[in-house]
Amino acid sequence: MPILEIEGLNVCYRPERGVRISAVRDLDISLERGEFVGIVGESGSGKSTLGFAITRMLRPPAVIESGAVKFKGTNILELTGSELRNQRRGGLALVLQSGMNALNPVRSISKQLGDVLKAHSQKGEHWGRSEVRARGGELLSMVELDSEVLDRYPHELSGGMRQRVAIALALSLEPELVVFDEPTTALDVIVQASVMETIKSLQRSRGFTAILISHDMSVVLDATDRTLVMYAGRVVEDQPSKTVASAGIHHPYTEALMKCYADPRADKVELQDIGGTPPDLSIEVAGCSFAPRCSFASKVCFLETPSLVRSELIQVACHVRLPVSPMAKEVKVVRN
Ligand SMILES: Nc1ncnc2c1ncn2[C@@H]1O[C@H](COP(=O)(O)OP(=O)(O)OP(=O)(O)O)[C@@H](O)[C@H]1O
């Protein structure tokens, strides 16, 4: 059984003043145990909304309009607060972009760890000062930090150290699924690479299932087994990460994204912007959301929303690349 199954998920934001925004649309995703899956897409494509929905951390004005998020077969969207708290142990965890936001600025790291361990303690467990320090030392060493960090406050740590502490906190309850939402975006390139190495090695050694959310295609391709490309709240492509660079079939949006990133090993790099702007998610339009920016788009693309179609290991939602609609078979493909 997959560890995570998302079925027909629709999430929107309904602010008191302002328009309704449909951030995640008709999403179906399935993750096998131990997989490391990357979710990539431009700002506003719905990646974080999805990450928050998976870990049930969405707050108003976000509303889950329909769908299911099944973790080990249980729809976590139907759990009560206390059932959800019980699920956190050995369950789901979220690591956010800035370690500072995840940490309490006025409590030392050991106190914060103690808070988490006590809040989720199980029958027979006692989290006194020495137990917390022992477990804290173990967790910090897992993320390559010295145990003296236990006595520090978040403002005394560098950005990279804070992010490592946030990862240690997330792993303290031994989650089986961890969502990393832009875990290294706020860090400089060198620290970014070393924190990513730690995440990769922890994922392999501890065997948890992981989702890495990033706008950076190269980070996702380097770290993950499988890449999902999101556009305007939908998954438009699902490929094994190692074949993305060489694959013969792509969604035109993925192709455009790939042209925006530089391979640092390449002698010469030519970058192209995608052109146009992402769609206004407050307006429901027929057809493929990428069609107005797509140089291959044809009539059918403006009329029917394409669904993900499988071709061997690849899934692409595009009338032109993997046509299923009888209408799509008749259209003339326009190439630039
Ligand atoms: N609290 C909110 N209230 C209203 N709209 C929101 C809110 N949070 C996000 N949105 C909207 O939902 C859509 C998806 O946002 P989301 O943050 O999930 O995208 P993202 O791909 O994670 O972007 P980024 O990489 O910039 O974080 C966007 O149009 C965004 O403006």
UniProtKB/TrEMBL annotation:
Q: How does it sit in the membrane?
A: Peripheral membrane protein
Which GO biological process annotations does it have? peptide transport
Report the GO molecular function annotations: ATP binding; ATP hydrolysis activity
GO CC, sorted alphabetically, is:
plasma membrane
Q: Where is the ABC transporter domain?
A: 6-257
Q: Where in the cell is it found?
A: Cell membrane
Q: Which UniProt keywords apply?
A: ATP-binding, Cell membrane, Membrane, Nucleotide-binding, Transport
Listed InterPro entries: AAA+_ATPase, ABC_Ni/Peptide_Import, ABC_transporter-like_ATP-bd, ABC_transporter-like_CS, Oligopep_ABC_C, P-loop_NTPase
Q: What is its main location?
A: membrane
Q: What family name appears in the similarity comment?
A: Belongs to the ABC transporter superfamily.
Please identify the protein, giving its name as recorded. Oligopeptide transport ATP-binding protein OppD
Report the source organism.
Acidithrix ferrooxidans
